[in-house]
Each structure stands twice: as structure tokens, then as C-alpha cells.
């Protein structure tokens, strides 16, 4: 039986000792896109930050490829193979596109290897090759999100975590971004996608979890969740 690449068990986390998420159980299997969907403020970002090692859990376990990682700092989590693209992109606006990408491979010591990875991600995102010498702040919103996603891929993660990719994007750019995530997944990268655009996320995911007020309230295949009366009423306006 295939082992989950990511397993979260009984996770409770928050800030200054005050829980934001409680009793979170979820798993991601190799090769999946798994969506965690819910309204703004439901705890989705806290969940990703805790998995990535940016927050310390109050209780519970996070395991990656069978190894507990709850106690590890963020740079060690990254080295193990988890890359997180944060909400709001967090690009270095005054630096070039190429420099932003290079910073995504800061754990890689070989300049030749960094160059190989640059060529790889620019093949996936041709517009970034065209804009390589432009500063990140001069890109459109959709191009900036592509840059953030490409920077996340520079570490060649086994698991790519994406936090609210659709934020601030026009519908056409959201559609393009979802197509890109699907292509990245088909190329072999497992994806954990956090989104408040519920339908768009579930349409590309294999499975999903619905989070409300810091707790998982529903889970299932994407088709099951899209057909759920509760999800349709709460998030799809049906």
C-alpha cells in the first residue's frame, strides 16, 4: 500500500498560544492534488505555515514521507522537499525575475545546477524567460503569480504547497493559473492547494477538505464535495 507523502494528525496550532486550527487530520498521497477550501479566516494559511515549519504546533503531528517534521525549522522542511508559495506572492519587487527565481534555489550550492533549474522552470513558464531581466514589480498580477509558483519549483519539491493563488487575479488569470498547477502536477509534483475559490480549486483537485472555523468539517473526492448540498449552499451560491 502506498504511504502518504504528507500526514497531519490531530494538529492544533495558532499564535501566542491561542488556537486557530484544532484537531486537523488530513493526508496527501504521492501524485495527488489535494485542495483545502474554505472562507477567508477559516485557518487555511495557519495550516500551511505550520506544515512548512513557520509556526510551531500546539499539539498534534505532521509527518512527511513517514518522518515526523513538526519540530523542524522552515529551512530544514524545505530541504526535505516541501516548498510553500505564500499568500500574496512575497516577491522581491526591485529584483529581476531571474534573481527572484535564483533565490528559490538558495539551498543549492552548485551554480551549474541552479542554471539547469532556471532553464527548466523557464521552459514551463516561457513568459518568465521573456521577462528575465525585468524587475518583478513591473509584471502583471498573473505574471507575478507565475513567478511565485516558478520560484517555489526551483527547489524541486516533492510537495508543493500553494496558498491562495487566485488572490487579486482576474478570472482569466485564475483559469490560466489552475491549468498551470494541473500541468505541474502531471509532470510529477504533488500539490497541496489552499483556496477560497472553492469551485475552481476542486475542479482541478483529486480530493478535498473543507475547513470552517479552524476545523475540517467535510472531506472526500472533489466530485463528492462539488455535489455536496452543504458545499453548494455555503460556497457555490447554489
In short:
This protein is α/β, with parallel strands linked by helices. It folds into two domains: 1-81 and 157-238, Rossmann fold (3-Layer(aba) Sandwich); 92-156, no CATH class.
Report the span from N to C terminus.
Answer: 38 Å
Shape: globular
Q: Report the C-alpha radius of gyration, rounded.
A: 17 Å
CATH fold annotation of the largest domain: Rossmann fold
Structural class: alpha/beta
Strand order of the largest sheet: 6-7-8-3-9-10
Low-confidence stretches: none
Q: How many structural domains does the protein architecture include? A: 2
What percentage of the residues does DSSP assign to strands (E)? 25-35%
The biggest beta sheet reads: 6 strands, mixed
* CATH level-four homologous superfamily name of the largest domain: P-loop containing nucleotide triphosphate hydrolases
CATH class of the largest domain: Alpha Beta
Mean pLDDT over the full residue set: 90
> How many E strands?
10
Could you estimate the helical fraction of the residues in percent? 25-40%
Give the second-level CATH assignment, the architecture of the largest domain: 3-Layer(aba) Sandwich
Amino acid at each position: 500500500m502506498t504511504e502518504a507523502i504528507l500526514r497531519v494528525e490531530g494538529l492544533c496550532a495558532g499564535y501566542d498560544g491561542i488556537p486557530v486550527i484544532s484537531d486537523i487530520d488530513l493526508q496527501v498521497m504521492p501524485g495527488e492534488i489535494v485542495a483545502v477550501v474554505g472562507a477567508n479566516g477559516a485557518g487555511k494559511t495557519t495550516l500551511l505555515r505550520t506544515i512548512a515549519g513557520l509556526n510551531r504546533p500546539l499539539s498534534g503531528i505532521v509527518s512527511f514521507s513517514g518522518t515526523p517534521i513538526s519540530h523542524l525549522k522552515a529551512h530544514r522542511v524545505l530541504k526535505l522537499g516541501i516548498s510553500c508559495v505564500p499568500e500574496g506572492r512575497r516577491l522581491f519587487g526591485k529584483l529581476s525575475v531571474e534573481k527572484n527565481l535564483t533565490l528559490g534555489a538558495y539551498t543549492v550550492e552548485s551554480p551549474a545546477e541552479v542554471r539547469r533549474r532556471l532553464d527548466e522552470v523557464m521552459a514551463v513558464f516561457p513568459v518568465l524567460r521573456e521577462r528575465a531581466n525585468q524587475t518583478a514589480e513591473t509584471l502583471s498580477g498573473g505574471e507575478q503569480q507565475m513567478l511565485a509558483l516558478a520560484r517555489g519549483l526551483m527547489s524541486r519539491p516533492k510537495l508543493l504547497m500553494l496558498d491562495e493563488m487566485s488572490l487579486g487575479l482576474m478570472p482569466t488569470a485564475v483559469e490560466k493559473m489552475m491549468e498551470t498547477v494541473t500541468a505541474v502536477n502531471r509532470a510529477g509534483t504533488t500539490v497541496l492547494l489552499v483556496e477560497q475559490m472553492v469551485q475552481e480549486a476542486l475542479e482541478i483537485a483529486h480530493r478535498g477538505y473543507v475547513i470552517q472555523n479552524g476545523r475540517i468539517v467535510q472531506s472526500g473526492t472533489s466530485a463528492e464535495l462539488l455535489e455536496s448540498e452543504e458545499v453548494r449552499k455555503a460556497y457555490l451560491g447554489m
